[in-house]
Design goal:
Largest sheet: 2 strands, antiparallel
Shape: elongated
Strand content: 35-45%
Number of strands: 6
Length: about 90
Amino acid sequence: MNGSDQVPIGYMSLSTLYASNKRATINDTTTFYITDQEAFGRFTSAMITSQNFTWKLQSNNLNVQAMKFPTAHGISFNKLVTINGAVFLHAP
């Protein structure tokens, strides 16, 4: 996210997630495919120089199964995550 603009920078695939007590922990090793190198460069610059930044995570056509209920198909996921930047302070 750049203000109110959404700038896609890439995509990745994750393994199946399992939730417990309303939480799911992502502990996965995967490859992030950069689709816009210029936008990714701006993103990495913002990560280093900004107090925080917002990353939109989005997925469509998910399959979700809760307990022993039938699997729901075609579920969409859309989440905004605010992450602290890596602001470096220089000594005088």
